[in-house]
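Cont'd.
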Amino acid sequence: MRYASLGSGSRGNATLVVENERAVLIDCGFSKRNVLTRLQASGTDPRQLDGVFVTHEHGDHAKGVVALCEGLNIPFYASFGTARKMEWLEHPLWRCIRSDEVMTVGAMGVLPVVVPHDAEEPLQFVIENAQQRRLGVLSDLGSLTPHILSAYEGCHGLQVEANHDPQMLRSGPYPPSLQARVAGNFGHLSNQQCAQLLERLMWDGLQHVTAGHISEKNNARTLVGEALCGVLGCAPSDVRLLEQDAVSDWCQL
Ligand SMILES: [Zn+2]
Ligand SMILES: [Zn+2]
């Protein structure tokens, strides 16, 4: 199994996961045209896509889902709550997924995991192949729950959220109400919460860790590196950070 981020941040998210040359996208928070350009940059033919898994209804995750899937005639998978918010309930390409029920697409099993976030019924995903290689994709959550920690145990690859630095958030441009939302239990993970998460999920089999959904206003990439380098046991500059406007390198599991 291999995976790459097509872009990550508050202006759009999409993660490509490939097994046996068949692919799924986790989220499509870019326009159809933009995501097709990014797919091409990753060396992926759109015809390899078998579906799009949608974490929640926020625009940076769901914006291009329908246009892309209608264009390719492939299904999109989302919780009932997300589909209701997006007015997808009558859409012929929508497939309903539920927390803790594995959905098999091609040679991949996709496990939806419920997370605390200010959306209708947000899910994040653990993807497993036939060899039990596991990728955990986890962003847009305000706090860590025992359920999340157990669902993401034993992952060989982790793509996690390091959204904000609490000090920068407090002194940043957001109004107090939005600051409280971002920092709250249903908001986003801070760099320090991300480090705590990784500390709990660290094990011998973990090969790749990438951090994304990094706020452009309330965080600095150097601060993410400094927060995560201890738990990852590397230099701050070697912590692998995703970018908003660039396709990442592939990670192979
Ligand atoms: Zn988001
Ligand atoms: Zn969100």
